[in-house]
Amino acid sequence: MTVSSVATGAPRAYVVADLGGTTLRIGRMSEGAGSATSVRRVATEGLGRYRELPAQTLQDRVVEQLTRELETYLGSPEGAGASAVGVSFAGPMTKDGTVLAGPTLWGGTAAPLPIVDILTRRLGVPVVVANDITAAAWRYASAEPDPFCLITVSSGIGHKVFRNGEVLISDSGHGGEIGHWRVDPGEDAVPCECGGRGHLGAMASGRGVLLAARRAAVADPEGFCRSVLAGPAGGDPAGITNEDLARAIRADDAFATRVLRTCLVPLALAVNCVFTAIGIRRYLFIGGFAVAVGPRFVTLLGDELTKLGCFGLTDEEIRDMLSLGATDDDHCLIGMARMLARTLPATAGTGGGA
After folding, report:
1. SS3 306
2. 283, 149 in Cβ contact below 8 A?
3. How far apart are CA 255 and CA 100, in angstroms?
4. Taking a C-beta distance cutoff of 8 angstroms, is the pair 157, 205 a contact?
5. Which tens digit of pLDDT belongs to each residue from 78-120?
6. d(CA 160, CA 135)
């Protein structure tokens, strides 16, 4: 805690960052505030832009970009007076702040990344780093009276279960990575960016649904030509974008909706598994793709989940379990600030969080 905040009772200010597979966002948040201000967005210098580069090279690029952008922000008027930095990271990590993998950031195997140590040395301020969905869960912790499962559907898929004031995950970083649950055991299953095959994230994430739509357009050219997707894509399956796909699904386009329904089956299986295993009755969906599709995302997912059934629940109870989170993209920034407020007094200013 800074001297000025102790003396005056003024809320602390933080610089918070959200490092995702597509975008790096950095903003400022005051303790207790409901939104971030002065948010800067840049494309992540990782797998999404440079697929031809090896994983270790991409990891190095991402870390250098993150550090450089944070240094620049802290040195700007927007970052002046910040008492700490919080970073949400799209990948599993240990409690001490070592990132174990970055499937949507650098893809395959790279060296374990002691990101907290690196940033603390370079930035010269207290640093807390957490998995992005762990951070996002803290945004909803105070508003959700019952245990809940937060699931993001964006470049990849991740989840965290929040119960009794904590995220359920091991100190070594295991858990909360349902996007890498193998739902298709076939040898020719869809490859995942982590190097595996048949993972949920490869099939039901924004990137997964986009690839499925392009494959479906090649397999069913007549259906594609009748779809509203054909025009913006210039009749070329490779021209389909996530933005156009989400727009078509919102408009109840038959071709696009059919693609999404197919991709939602493994996601419904995942929700069914979590419910059956630990009884969670509240599922919040965030992430760029889920939010872009909007309420139809949970409606269509509810269709698939009721087909599967959840032991002991009626169809209405099943649908009531599913909700969209807030429609902004500040989940990780807001959650990270709340983590900072909670974590810094207990850790003397530095640390990580799975």
Report:
1. helix
2. yes
3. 38
4. yes
5. 999 899 999 998 888 888 888 988 888 998 889 999 999 999 9
6. 10
- Domains, the chain, ranges and CATH? 3-138+329-353 (3.30.420.40), 177-281+288-324 (3.30.420.40)
Report phi then psi at 149, rounded to 5.
-115, 120
Rounded CA-CA distance 60/112 in Å is 12
- pLDDT tens digits, residue range 321-330? 999 998 887 8
What is the spatial distance between Cα 170 and Cα 94, in angstroms, rounded to a whole number? 8
- Rounded-to-integer distance, Cα 162 and Cα 27, Å: 25
Q: What is the dihedral of CA 51, 185, 100, 280, to 10 degrees?
A: 120
| Mean pLDDT computed over 219-248 | 96
Maximal C-alpha separation, the chain: 70
CA angle 100, 102, 107 (to 5 degrees): 125
| Cβ contact 177:92 at 8 Å | yes
* DSSP line for 200-246: HHHHHSHHHHHHHHHHHHHH-HHHHHHSTTTTTTTT-GGG--HHHHH
User: In this model, does residue 4 exceed pLDDT 70?
Assistant: no
Q: How far apart are CA 148 and CA 102, in angstroms?
A: 25
Choose among 143, 181, 131, 134: nearest CA to 162: 134
Q: How far is CA 6 from the centre of its chain?
A: 34
Over range 132-137, report the average pLDDT: 88
Query: Does 349 score more than 50 pLDDT?
Result: no
CA torsion sign for 291, 177, 180, 90 is positive
Residue entry with tokens 């009748």: 226
Q: Mean pLDDT across the stretch 221-232?
A: 96
Residue (of 115, 201, 71, 136) closest to 331 by Cα position: 136
pLDDT tens for residues 286-296? 988 999 999 99
